[in-house]
Amino acid sequence: MEVNESYRSFLEIWHLAMWYLFLAAVAVSVLMVIFYMIKYSGAKSYKEKFDIASVKETKTYLNANYVLAVGIFLLLNTVYDETVVLSPIWFGIRMFVSMCIATLHIYIAYLIFKYYYPGPLQKKLKKLRYAPRINPSTGNAMKLLSESEEDAYLDEGMQAEENAFSVDYDVWIDEETQETHIEKYQGHLTAFECDRCGFQTLRLVKETVIAEPTEIADGEIEKEFECSYCGRIKRKNQTLNKHMDKDAMVAHKAHVDMPDIHAIKIEIHGTNGKTEVFEFQNTDQAKHFLDEFEFDKIRE
Ligand SMILES: [Zn+2]
What we know:
Number of strands: 8
Strand content: 15-25%
Number of domains: 3
Oligomer: single chain
Largest sheet: 3 strands, antiparallel
Number of helices: 9
Strand order of the largest sheet: 1-2-3
Bound molecules: zinc ion
Helix content: 40-55%
């Protein structure tokens, strides 16, 4: 009888604690989203909104959902008290089921933000990027120059970045005053920032295996980077993991054969309005992919 009494009072405290922690979790989750929204709507320009949304939006919603999942776990640990009071076994079962449901919430949120949300987000980012700009000093509507027109307004380093596809510049011009406004966006290909000229034009040009990895020891590889703007050459040695499996070794060798390609990203726009982005490590993979590509073949 006494055990039963102390179990009963423990449950009461537990119920209260779970309930308050649930409220705290929901509050944190909601605040995360509210802070993001305040930051986003407080941004003064479309470009600033673009940068905030592209970096923070998915992360914020995902993290808010993780905290919410903790809240769900806590809340579920307060239900069916009249059954749980019968035996501590029910207490354990309730906790286990709560954990399963919370994990399911995390999993679904992850799937949504990893596979579904990038589509709508891309659409939103596109709108922000191409929304007509207004020149703040004259109030005139500005015009976005085409790729061929914009070169005259970009310096050589910027052009080198555009040629490396690492950065994409948009040049907006006020046709009345000839005032220009340049916006910087991420390009389709990645390149490292050169530590001499500061442009994103440092690309991997050569990889030399200094020591092949064996069963017992790590190998070593020398990577040579070259800046396509200022010509700086940078060498960096990296460890080749001894546990690298066969596939990785083969992929690595293919990579060595294609020395000047660091990554390939392909964006495909269908007539059905669908846009898909794919990333590859070498041209063979990318070419092969294009041969194979059909919208219907995309994994849902
Ligand atoms: Zn450079």
